[in-house]
Design goal:
This protein has 11 helices and 10 strands. The chain has helices at residues 8-19, 83-95, 128-134, 140-154, 164-167, 178-196, 198-202, 204-216, 257-268, 282-304, 311-332, and strands at residues 25-30, 38-44, 49-55, 103-107, 116-121, 162-163, 224-227, 236-238, 244-246, 253-256. It has a 5-stranded antiparallel β-sheet with strand order 1-2-3-5-4, with helices on both faces. Strands 6-10-7 form a 3-stranded antiparallel β-sheet. The longest helix has 23 residues, at 282-304.
């Protein structure tokens, strides 16, 4: 499809409505790291800047490759995109004193732009990922602050699992337990990946057996807290005071905290220690780790089949995780 992105003229109307007509947009740049929504940085003529989020199918590279069954908000892992999810996540994170971009304006009227939009603060301190690569010593303080924020999130007494926007409105969710949801999702991911990847097709039986075996060992009661869902160092910006700011928060949910820690441990690698905790269930961690790798085969192969400009990168990512998943399945064999 030919994607139509927002123009400077369209975004100028939003700025006028939010900040007044005495401020002019100098530049409007679509940032390259968004695959589910449009993220635009606007620089204004008073030397300030702001960010505009746009939830429009033309901005969402997943919209043409996701199955219809993945759009149900009652499904904790359905497509996490939309203004409702963003606003609910902001409210919950704010209540826990966890920084995310400050919401300045939200609009569903379609009078300023033909899609739901939000205007948020522009956090200009760079990503924690970049700081870890450039100066690990300087990253110690924000990393420790992130660990404290994660503990507040994960220790929050969640009423039940599900998307924050759904649970906080007391709406129904699908599934009996976190482990069962992850198992069913991973089995579906194996089938999807096997259709697209020869190695996964050859290892299908071993993966299915390993997933069932690991799931059968999960017996401890779950620890359900507030999880980000995709918390890598690239999803943590740094405020002017050095405080970590979580971005891409639409996937915030109440779920087993081991699911978060498997991803965080993988993404932060040798920097994970300040974020870890010693009360995680090892059986859930093993199941969720294999499920995470399988997900990181199926999902990237799915989006690589569309028109995303970084399709080759997604295929390489899928190949890496296919190798890890298949090795884990072999090691888990009885």
């Amino acid at each position: 499809m030919m994607r139509q992105f927002a123009t400077k003229e369209q975004l100028s109307g939003i700025v006028a409505a939010v900040f007044g007509t005495d401020r002019r947009v100098l530049t409007a740049n679509r940032l390259p790291n968004g695959s589910k929504k449009g993220v635009y940085r606007l620089t204004l003529d008073d030397a300030t800047s702001t960010i505009v989020y746009i939830w429009d199918p033309a901005e969402d590279y997943w919209s043409d490759v996701q199955g219809a069954d993945r759009a149900d908000p009652a499904d904790t892992f359905s497509h996490a995109s939309g203004l409702d999810l963003f606003e609910a996540a902001v409210r919950r994170l704010d209540s826990l004193d966890v920084r995310c971009p400050r919401l300045l304006f939200a609009d569903r009227s379609r009078s300023l732009y033909p899609a739901d939009i939000a205007v948020v603060e522009d956090v200009r301190g760079g990503t924690l990922e970049a700081l870890l690569e450039r100066d690990p010593d300087a990253a110690r303080e924000p990393l420790a602050a992130l660990g404290q924020a994660l503990r507040r999130m994960h220790d929050h007494p969640a009423p039940r699992f599900g998307k924050v926007a759904v649970v906080d409105e007391d709406l129904p969710v699908i599934g009996g337990s976190g482990a069962q949801i992850i198992l069913e999702r991973a089995l579906a991911d194996v089938e999807e990946a096997a259709e697209r990847d020869e190695r996964m097709r050859g290892g299908r039986g071993a993966l299915i057996s390993a997933l069932h075996g690991l799931a059968s060992r999960v017996t401890a009661p779950p620890r359900v807290g507030v999880v980000h869902g995709e918390l890598g160092p690239d999803h943590v910006m740094l405020a002017a005071d050095g405080r970590p700011v979580l971005i891409d928060i639409e996937g915030v949910a109440y779920f087993d905290i081991e699911w978060e820690h498997v991803f965080v441990r993988m993404r932060f690698g040798r920097h994970y220690a300040p974020l870890g905790r010693d009360d995680l269930d090892p059986d859930r961690m093993r199941l969720y780790q294999l499920a995470m790798h399988v997900s990181l085969v199926a999902g990237p192969l799915r989006i690589a089949g569309g028109d995303h400009p970084e399709a080759a990168w997604f295929r390489d990512l899928a190949a890496t995780h296919a190798g890890i998943a298949l090795a884990m399945a072999t090691q888990s064999a009885p």
